[in-house]
Amino acid sequence: MSQFVYEKFGFERLNVYQESIKIVNLTYQISKKFPKEEMFGLTNQLRRASTSIALNIAEGSARTKKDFAHFLSLAKGSCFECVAIIDICKQQNLISESEFSIIYEQLNKISRMISKFQASLRNTKNE
User: Fold this and answer.
1) Which pTM does this prediction carry?
2) For position 125, what pLDDT does the model report?
3) Nearest-angstrom CA–CA distance, 81 and 56
4) Cβ-based burial of 8 (10 A; exposed 0-12, middle 13-18, buried ≥19)
5) What is the pLDDT of residues 93-117, one digit of tens each?
6) For residue 97, how many other CB atoms are within 10 A of its CB?
7) 65-91 and 97-122 helices, crossing angle to 10°
8) Which residues contact 18 (CB under 8 A, 6 or more apart)?
9) By the 8 A CB rule, do 79 and 107 touch?
10) How far apart are CA 28 and CA 23, in angstroms?
11) CA distance 102 to 26
12) Measured between alpha carbons, how far is 64 from 127 in angstroms, rounded to an integer?
C-alpha cells in the first residue's frame, strides 16, 4: 500500500505551532487522570484552552500580518488561561508539583515565542 505524501501547510512549519501541539498533548495526557466529576469542568477547560493556542496560530497564519498578530494575541491569552487552570489544578491536588512545573515551563516557552513572533510581524511590512 502506498503512503500519501503531502506538502505541509505553512503554519505546520512554525516552531511556535509545533510547541503548541506539545502542550496540547501534555494537557490531554495529564488531564486523563482527573476525576470523572471534572470531565465538564477543569478537564474540559484545560483541554479547550490548550487547543485554542494551536488553533489560533493555525487560523491566524491564513490572514494578513495585522490579523495574524491579533490571533497570536488570542493564542497568548489562551496560554495565560492555561496557567490559571493548572494553578487551580495544583491547588485542588489534581496535578503534582512536578506536572505543574512541566506544563508551566512549556506555557512560558510558548508565550515567549508568541511575543517574539508578534514583534517580528510588527517589524515587517503588512501585506
Assistant:
1) 0.90
2) 59
3) 14
4) exposed
5) 999 999 999 999 999 999 999 999 9
6) 8
7) 170
8) 12
9) yes
10) 8
11) 9
12) 6
Grid cell 497564519 is found at 61
Q: How far apart are CA 76 and CA 31, in angstroms?
A: 21
Taking the C-alpha atoms of residue 15 and residue 31, their distance in angstroms, rounded to an integer, is 24
Identity (one letter) of the amino acid at 37?
E
Query: Cα separation of 11 and 50, whole Å?
Result: 17
Question: Which residue, among 15, 26, 27, 46, has the nearest Cα to 112 in the 3D structure?
Answer: 15
pLDDT tens, position by position, 32-83: 999 999 888 999 999 999 999 999 999 999 999 999 999 999 999 999 999 9
* Residues recorded for the chain: 127
Which grid cell is 98? 512536578
